[in-house]
Amino acid sequence: MTTRVLDMSIEDRATAYAMGSLSPGERDEIARERLYNSELDEHISLAEQLFAGLEAGEAPAPTASRLSSESWSRIEAAMSREQAALAGKHAQECSDGDWRVHGPRIEFKPLWSESAILIRCNPGAVEERHDQPPDLDEHILVIAGDLDIGGRRFGTGDYVRVPAGSVHQHMETHGGCLLFTEYLAADGAPLVRPEPLVEGQRAFGR
């Protein structure tokens, strides 16, 4: 992250993002951080709502009557392409869905099953050392941010497998991270009846 962005408070970063006063690179950095920093995401949403209200008061939004038939045709064509591409599929944005509290500064949500989840760790989140279940391998992919396991720093695109029956070492994140985690039987087969996680249950290592 650039020095200028690092020196900003979380409120200033959110305001600059909402106002469009960041460079393209800085905006990309904050957009990635927003995926796993729920406090930043909340501040940006509030700032966007605030500035959207101000803009609406200063200048009326375009109405349907002001759009040309050519513009409407392009909009309809774009919507048709999207509907055709996603027909029969399930799509969900990162911020949507059933995010559940796992513990201090950590949330998770199931994807296509209870054994395939996204884990959102806010800056400073910690998961203590614990035993991995004897019948479950844990596969962790870092989507964004940083993950520290036993002093080794993992970043975007890095992968870690925690074998069944092993010791799951202490993990923490300094700037926050978004993880994709899947639990598979030790022989590599998907779980037949994965037990759903509940609030407070371990998201790392179940």
TrEMBL record:
<dbReference type="InterPro" id="IPR011051">
    <property type="entry name" value="RmlC_Cupin_sf"/>
</dbReference>
<protein>
    <recommendedName>
        <fullName>ChrR-like cupin domain-containing protein</fullName>
    </recommendedName>
</protein>
<dbReference type="InterPro" id="IPR025979">
    <property type="entry name" value="ChrR-like_cupin_dom"/>
</dbReference>
<feature type="domain" description="ChrR-like cupin">
    <location>
        <begin position="91"/>
        <end position="183"/>
    </location>
</feature>
<dbReference type="InterPro" id="IPR014710">
    <property type="entry name" value="RmlC-like_jellyroll"/>
</dbReference>
<dbReference type="Pfam" id="PF12973">
    <property type="entry name" value="Cupin_7"/>
</dbReference>
